[in-house]
Amino acid sequence: xxxxxxxxxxxxxxxxxxxxxxxxxxxxxxxxxxxxxxxxxxxxxxxxxxxxxxxxxxxxxxxxxxxxxxxxxxxxxxxxxxxxxxxxxxxxxxxxxxxxxxxxxxxxxxxxxxxxxxxxxxxxxxxxxxxxxxxxxxxxxxxxxxxxxxxxxxxxxxxxxxxxxxxxxxxxxxxxxxxxxxxxxxxxxxxxxxxxxxxxxxxxxxxxxxxxxxxxxxxxxxxxxxxxxxxxxxxxxxxxxxxxxxxxxxxxxxxxxxxxxxxxxxxxxxxxxxxxxxxxxxxxxxxxxxxxxxxxxxxxxxxxxxxxxxxxxxxxxxxxxxxxxxxxxxxxxxxxxxxxxxxxxxxxxxxxxxxxxxx
Length: 359
Known about the structure:
Layout: H1 2-27, H2 34-42, E1 61-62, E2 67-68, H3 76-86, H4 92-104, H5 118-153, H6 158-172, H7 175-186, H8 210-248, H9 251-258, H10 263-281, H11 283-292, H12 295-301, H13 307-316, H14 320-348
Helix pairs in contact: 1-14, 5-8, 5-11, 5-14, 6-8, 7-8, 8-10, 9-10, 10-14, 11-14, 12-13, 13-14
GO cellular component, one term: plasma membrane
Pfam families: BPD_transp_1
Transmembrane segments: 9-26, 128-149, 161-186, 217-240, 275-302, 322-348
């Protein structure tokens, strides 16, 4: 197992390098840049969301010899100073290699727009995204595992039919649409005012007791976590059901029943470990997918200042230290989580031996 883990860890280096190289190359062809964003703001050409395409009108940027058409009236020395400040006065290859060398040392630089280190910025936003990802994943497992097992045991029954209908509807509803529905129904939109409509905590959070802080925290995350859980819960339930059905139909289950074991002994003594292999081993990947995907719209709807909103604003504002710093960090985390998923397989079922594989 040690040799397999070592091979996987060594593969992380070229994989991560390739991810960074491709994304860095793509940004060289994207209109706009951090300097143009500053120029557009100086010229009063709208906010960040008005320049998603990299500027409008005369605020263009050409490749090769950088020519800022929107910089009319700005001294050339000022433009050159900005280029030197952001490191854009160097060739792309040199900038990329310098960036990667800094990242290897976990030096992610500072945000262009906020003059704060990327690490501090990520740590500032991460609690929101971790709250959504962790609680959504845990709740999805708490609901999906017993429900999926029950559906497998009652396959073809009325219970299986009507729960499948609910699951299909839940899966078909986009998370952001469900979030809006929750806002309208329970957050003072048009009906009830039960849950707060914004933020992760109340304004008087620091003044509350420990129990009060815990209750206030869960009160605020109830709706966004519910909206985030809806799709993952449906997928995980069907995965659990199908996994158990596959195991129940195997020969060893028939043998166990022939020996006179009860259905509970067969189900939880023999089927459970094999059926849960793919479900439990997929926990790290599921958490990561919930952590990354769908958070932008949910965070925007509920006014949660998390990683999704940070990534969007950084991409639109061409805040490259934040864009590439977070890409490197979470790319590394994603690759490591892939290795952890394999280790989870071995933990759940020690019979699995990755050493015998040639990959």
